[in-house]
Amino acid sequence: MTTRELVRKVRNIEIRTRGAVNELFSGEYHSAFKGRGIEFSEVREYVPGDEVRTIDWNVTAREGKPFVKLFEEERELNVMLLVDVSASGDFGSVASFKREMAAEIAGVLAFSAIRNQDKVGMVLFSDRLEEYIPPKGGTRHTLRMVRDLLAWSSKGRGTDLTVGLETLLRGLNKRAIVFLISDFQTESDSWRNAAKVAGAKHDLVALHIIDPREREVPNVGWFAAEDPETGEVVWFDTSNKTVRAAYHLGKSREESDIAQFFRRNNIDRVVIDLTEPDQPYLRPLVRFFKQRERKR
Known about the structure:
Elements: H1 3-33, E1 38-45, H2 57-63, E2 67-73, E3 78-84, H3 98-115, E4 119-125, E5 129-136, H4 139-151, H5 161-171, E6 176-182, H6 191-201, E7 203-210, E8 222-226, E9 233-237, H7 241-264, E10 268-273, H8 282-295
Parallel strand pairs: 3-4, 3-6, 6-7, 7-10
Antiparallel strand pairs: 1-2, 4-5, 8-9
Helix pairs in contact: 1-3, 1-4, 1-8, 3-4, 5-6
């Protein structure tokens, strides 16, 4: 990708995501995530109806009458984007490669965050750590992250979600909103332990990007499928209904297993189905934000 092409793509994502943020996400993001933590503000004299649990016993003892602690929402959150940049992201059967869609989703989330005065950081990973960008505010910082995501030439081809999750756990002590953006195409389940820990320490949300051709294949006769991460090539006869049904069943079971894991561990999961060619993340993200708002 030339510098001119990269600048054009970054600019295009900025324009597209700005519209989504302005029209849809800013309020929903704020309602869904603001106030997930609270900090001490001040004390005042107790009035009937105050929670007994908020009484400040030290001040009460010193003043000879009851005082309560007041708290307010944290004014600034850290948002971390954990983005899978393995070779399987360089696939797309509709309008965009999964890598490009991940960059656009990251842009929407990052611009929504900085609009609410939050700081945003990013971890790029494949089967190794590719890049770590600490949380920071500002539009220029967000555009840099989108640029890096689009232009990044990964050193690794495989997927190891554990790398991204453990980088987060080592690098960030303060509780954060964490979006794990991936197609979750990995042979190992070892990442699940790290996800449980990250989900307990942070507010973890899994964004599962799925291309329709990864769920089922059309009837096109004999077909050679290459695994982009391992290079393994497998031939199969797509004109055979049994073969197509077996493929679909296998993928359905994989997706169901991932969904059950997140559900069991109280980790939110949002499916981004690329069947819709234009901004397929809009409806699922807005629906997710509204659900989070209702839970508060």
